[in-house]
Amino acid sequence: MEVGVVGKPNVGKSTFFSAATLAKAEIASYPFTTIEANRGVMYVRSKCPHLDFKTECNPRNSQCEKGTRLVPIEAIDVAGLVPDAHKGKGLGNKFLDDLRQASALIHIVDASGATDSEGNPCEVGSHDPMEDIEFLEREVNYWIKEILFKDWHKLSKQIEMDEAKIERVLAEKLTGLGVTEGQIYAALRDAGLNDKPTQWSEEELFSLSHHIRRHSKPMIIAANKCEIAPEENLKRLGELKDYTVIPTCAEVELALRRAAKGGLIDYVPGSKSFNIMEGKELSEEHQKALKKIEHILEKINDTGVQKCIEEAVFKLLDLIVVYPVEDESKLTDKDGRVLPDAYLMKRGSTAVELAYKVHTDLGDNFIRAIDARTKRVVGHDYELKDCDVIKIVANA
Fold this sequence. Notes:
The chain is α/β, with parallel strands linked by helices. It is built from 14 helices and 14 strands. It has helices at 13-21, 50-53, 92-98, 129-148, 152-162, 166-173, 181-191, 202-216, 231-238, 250-261, 284-300, 305-316, 351-358, 360-364; strands at 2-6, 38-47, 63-65, 68-77, 102-110, 219-224, 245-247, 265-266, 275-276, 319-325, 343-346, 366-371, 376-378, 389-394. α1 (13-21) packs parallel to α10 (250-261), α6 (166-173) packs across α7 (181-191) and α7 (181-191) crosses α8.
C-alpha cells in the first residue's frame, strides 16, 4: 500500500514528505524542485498489544516506542502539478504516472495563499487555495478518463455485444492504476449511468472518472503553512463538504523530528509539545529556534502532519492493525519473537484474508484461527477487529 503526497509546486509538499519520513528530499522555494519522485516510509501509530498482555515485544516489520507500535506505510512525493498537467504541461505526465499505485492521496495546499497557480511565490492571501483543490482533482480525473476511455467507441460496443460486466471490463482497463472491480462498481452506482455505455456522453464519462478517483484514490487535504494563513482561508477550507481538512505546519514538524533524531529534544510525532533532553546544552541558535517553535505550537496546537497520515490510513482507507502469531499462548513466531509483525488490513477483513496476507500457502491450507485474547477458535469468516492477535492454523 502506498500513500501519495501531491500538490502544486512550492506549497511545502517535499517538506511534508521529509517531515513524515525523514527521507532526504530537495526543498527550495521555487517550482519543480522535485523532478524525480521521492520515496520513503511513513508510520501510523497503534497501541501495542504487549501492554495488554503484560509482556515485552520483539517487533520485526514495525517498531514499538513506549507501548506505541509504529506501522510502516510506503510514501511517494511526486513532482508538482499545475493546471493542464494531463495535457503534458509542467511535469504533468510524469506526476500522474508516478501516482499509479497510490491507494490514497494527501493533497498539500498552501493555506496561506502565498503561491500562485503555477507555484510561484506571491503575497500572503493573494491566491485562493480553494482553486488548488479544484484544479488538482480535475487533473487526476482527466488523467483517469483519458486512460479509461481510450478506444471507448470500440470498447463500449464490445461490452454491449458480449453482454460483459461493465465493472469487470473497466477494472481490467485500469489494472495499472490499482483500481479494483469493487471500486468501479461503486463509482458506476454513484455516477447513476444507464447500462448502455455506447450512449454515455463526454460529460457522463468525466463524471464516472471523478467517482472512480474518489473511490480508488481518496484524498485528504493538508492545509499547510497554517501558522501564517489568514483565518478566513482556514475557515473556508474547514467548511468544505466531503473532505477531511487538517491544518498543518510541515516546516515545524520537520524541525522537531530532526531535533529529536539529533538527540536535542524528546518529541513524539503527533504530540502537542516537546521537552529539551536533560543535561543537553543548546547553542543560542538552537534555543532561539526551539523558542520560536514553542510559540507556533501554542498557536496551532500540533503540526497536523502525523494526523494527516493517520486520517488517510485509518479513516480514508478504513484500515485496522492486526498481529498474526504462531503460538497464541506465548504470542511468538517460529523464532520466538513476541508480537513480531503488525499488518494493516481493510476493516471487515476475515481470518482467511489475514492468512493470505501472511503467505499464499497459509491461505490455501487454512483450517481455523485462534483469537489469542479469548483463546476462542474462530472460522475462516471471522471478522478481524483492530489490535486482534491471531494464530492461523493450516495444513502442513
